[in-house]
Prior knowledge:
55% of the residues lie in helices and 0% in strands. The protein is mostly helical and 107 residues long.
Amino acid sequence: xxVSTQSTGNKxxxxxxxxxGCPLNLTEITEDGAVCHKGKRxxxxxxxxEKLRLAEIDMERVLQDLKLEDSFEEMRKVxxxxxxxxxxxxxxxxxxxxxAAPESSVT
Length: 107
């Protein structure tokens, strides 16, 4: 078995560059899932997949932050309404109303 230096040189270069590593099932990414084993430079199908995945993760994070901010705003509004109702109830229960007619002086 004769191994040419060209094939070993390319193999070393690919190992240095690493494998593509793009998950073959993009809908469900798991640690033990199947990935593309071509060299990063040799794989034209998944060029830049890492940057795209990071952008997707960033977008998901931004959307989660917006949802969280909306939830905090809604909670603040509810607490304000609860406090206002409590104050209104105290005013209604503790307020005194004089039902007696004012005394008028008749001369």
